[in-house]
Amino acid sequence: MTTEKFAPRFNLGRFAPSTTGRVHPGTLIAGLLCWLDARSNRARVALRLEDLDRERTKSGYVDRMERDFAWFGLDWDSRSLQSENADRYESALEALVREGRVYACDCSRAAIRAVARRAPDGSYRYPGTCRSKTVRSTAWREVDRPLRLRLDSREIALKDESGIDLSGDAATLFGDPVLRRRDGTYSYHFASVLDDSEAGVDRVVRGRDLAPSTILQVALQRELGLPTPSYRHHCLFLERSGDKLSKLHGAVDVDALRDRYDATELCGRLASFVGLVPPGTVCRPIDLVDEFDWNRVSQEDVELRWEVDEGLQLSSD
Question: Are 207 and 233 in contact (CB under 8 A)?
């Protein structure tokens, strides 16, 4: 062993699940891959529970999510709740308001959809209708409309570690992003880049469904003078519903999984689905650290099915 071999390529990764539902196989494989990426590099990994969605975050989701991760075998070097960071978001927004870069938006979602084209992440590009309605530094807190950032147009060259080309002009692709919503909730992208910077996150590992919006987060980092971490996006677990494929979550949650599998059986099963271990392996996350290699992880999304009698299976089986 040499010191150089075990010198971490990054210092802090983070797993940031939304607390809007129960833990499911997709949550667990995302957490496992993020955790293995950090642990195999002798880096730290933080758990950030993204609980800003007031309508969909139900009482008890946060505690149950943490218990489910512990049962599965994932541990964290730090833990935080986004809902505890309102002062941070407010301070950053106030600075942008003082610079005259924030405006109030009167447009309804229906109005935007009627005239806008699709953005890369499936949302609608904001056409800039209300750009002239700059908010004053003395009154922005009382504004009961969405607040948007007047985003500068610039082409950003960006490629993630798995080879996905994420380059683009975020202003052209997405339009001006919302910073604070009508109900006073801060937006996902704004909160995420601020929290990453504050914690010192220099590595982001997450599902490839989030890859299209990465350029928007990087643009926000540039606008706010924040560092850009390295990115890697990985395969997803999918399920078939009729003729369509969607992320696997509605069919089965962790309660059903725990009724059928113990933690080592489930860990081995999920790891085998993405190619990390042979089928039938029984293991804990810690057992996978020394041999973890992204080259062994499936490059393609994995289609699964859940049957009460058969459990979790590859759709091709």
Answer: yes
Same fold, 12-84+235-314 and 86-194: yes
Q: Please give the average per-residue pLDDT across 292-316, as a whole number.
A: 92
Q: Dump pLDDT digits (tens) for 208-222.
A: 999 999 999 999 999
Using alpha carbons, list the distances in angstroms from residue 190 to 147, 187, 207, 219, 226.
Answer: 11, 5, 19, 11, 12
Question: Cα dist. 3→9, 42, 77, 201, 286 in Å?
Answer: 12, 11, 22, 23, 21
CATH 3.40.190.10 fits 12-84+235-314, yes or no: no
72-91 per-position pLDDT tens digit: 999 999 999 999 999 999 99
CATH class of 86-194: alpha beta
User: Domain coordinates of the chain in residue numbers?
Assistant: 12-84+235-314, 86-194
